Amino acid sequence: MSRLIIVSNRVQPPTGEGGSGSQGGLAVALSAALRESSGIWFGWSGEVTDQFTGHINLQRNFGVTTATVDLEEQDVDEYYNGYANRTLWPLFHYRMDLAEFESGFAEGYERVNQRFAETLEPLIESDDLVWIHDYHMFPLGQYLRDGGITNRMGFFLHIPWPPYRLLLSLPNHRQLVETLFAYDVVGFQTIDSLGSFHDYVTQEMGGTIGEGGRVTVGDRSVVAISCPIGIDTTNFLEATESAAARYACYRMRQSSNGRDMIIGVDRLDYSKGLEERFLGYERLLQTDEALHGEVFLLQIAPPSRGDVQSYREIRASLDALSGRINGAYADVEWVPIRYVNRGYPRDRLAGIYRAAKIGLVTPLRDGMNLVAKEYIAAQDPENPGVLILSRFAGAAEQLTQALLINPYSPEEIADAIKLALEMPLEERKARWRACMDNIAAEDVLWWRKRFTDALEGVAQSVG
Ligand code: GDG
Question: Is the CB of 25 under 6 A from ligand 1?
Fold first, then answer.
């Protein structure tokens, strides 16, 4: 097996059993994948330095070697807060209204990718597989090729790939898409995203789609696949059985006081449909008085990207909305929404998921959504809860037996909650089993193998 070099914007060294509570979906998945290989995880340390030096900080934690570099403040502003999170993230999540197009952002983005390439090059040995992740890093592969790197190289996009016509609104969209042809394999979360990529290539670039997913434009080609990410199912099941999880579950049930709990867990992000979730739940309270005092929503939402204005706005608007709903419906013994802006260790989270009768996952757009999978994995097979899932989460392509809803419709959310609360045990079990079979089969190790097999296969066929 070749050594794997994984590159992503942020590198978060694993913190051992139980997790740190601050690892995002990407970090959780990559730690699991790297633990199995003797590879290196390269990226930004999260630290800021006066002047970029390219100094690499090598560390080894819980079986994973990390190599990190610090960035200058201007880099962070333009590349991370700017182009990645104020241009690409909103646009790729269909939020044209929030996307900002500033030439300084694009320049900073290119500069940082070039710096990453120059810093990484000396670490790459001839047989390594290089696997680059996510929207922060589209052009990195091209810069590595320019620097003479001929290794097998793949790129995986964790967020949705937007529809062809939406992508046209990005200045220099074609330049961005062309960078993908520096890779041997490009992976998307869903068939839907892969289809949108095909649309762009065929309609905008005059390209063709051939055998084995090979996409060709002129004399350049890349293999494009759909490769849905999974959770570390075995590890998560262990976390669910841990003493900390059991205790968290017990405490949650005690504090629920016989009421049915609905759980939501999300980074505080406008793509996650948190306002729509609250509004759907409010609709339920408006239309079904019998449920007052019988049910509550626990929303865990650790803040993220607080340097970006739109994130400060969504936070303020959720504060106001949860306050308004609680003000309108709470009584002295019952609060309808428990809204918590902090993270919890992974094992505790597993116990909290298990105590919830409903997992409510309502993103307006989401590459995959690992919370949906974690909620299913944490359930008691003999008495499982019900997953309500947005049809706009990538996970909806796999978890077809969840209650799939349109998050823009408060009625659909309210109706689905009602249905889930009343669902007979046999139906809950059957739906849960169908979802769990997928989560067990297509876990994070399956995902990594599917991607690296494609990468190794391509290298053999093109020489
Ligand atoms: C991106 C894509 C794609 C959240 N709160 C706590 C906590 N979390 C963990 C969850 C889960 C992860 O964060 C969130 O993953 P998601 O997949 O839901 O979302 P993103 O962070 O947006 O991830 C997404 C993913 O990349 C992977 O490809 O699925 O579509 O947007 O694992 O559990 N973890 C702990 N405490 C918390 O309070 N320990």
Answer: yes
